[in-house]
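User: Can you write out an input/output pair for a complex, sequences first and structure second?

Assistant: Here is one pair. Inputs:
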Amino acid sequence: MLTYWMDLSDPFRAFDTLRRQMDQVFREFDETSGGRGRGGAYPRASLRDTKEAFVLTAEVPGLADKDLNLTATHDSLTISGERKNGAPEGYAVHRRERGDFRFSRSFQLPARIDVEKIAAEVKNGLLVVTMPKHPEAQPKAITVKAS
Amino acid sequence: MSQEKNLTPAQSAPENTRTRPVVAPPVDIYENQHEYLVVADLPGVGNEDVQIHYENGELSIRGTRNGGGGGQLLGAEFGPADFVRRFTIPETVDAEKIDAKLSNGVLHLSLPKASRAKPRQIAVKAG
């Protein structure tokens, strides 16, 4: 980086490079275990609204179906689970960033769902919960009559 | 502890040309007499989306997570991402025998040590 200081035509390039590198550092930190506490709850989740259902996706790496518990009411979903991955037997530990965790997180849904028809699957470390909307909450087309 | 120095992350990844963020996944590293074990969390990455590269003593792990599903996004705490992590590997690793498996979004990499690096018991003969 020092070489940039010699570049007289653009003396601020060094700062620009530094700023970009710092941005990268913060971005990476936000995304790793060290930054997990920042900006909210665990596990991280996303919610989508297809017209017929709400689809919740959550990051649960290392958890199988039996490690996850789901409960739902007509307008909320709670997921809980636990990951225990102690160091494998007979190995020395060099680096431990993944850790064990236990979580419980509730989501308030924007409309009524059909509790009986909820489907959940876990794939590649992502939990996907599909919650069909209750018929009451389905959008209905209303025809406009000319008078 | 001297071994740990060898398994430190290499320099940060070069800038990406795509807009999706480059993420450094959390990693565990273990060692026993026979191998190093690298475990990384890559949620949402399928078997076909992982690339493991070994070149000039540097091991790079790259996993791609694509955006999932249709419909309107109401809220997102994570999205598509490139998981990238690079490590310098000690020369004692037998690169030919590196083995990787992915289950439940967790990557397990086994890096066997070359036989010359394994500890050997030397018998002392009576003179």
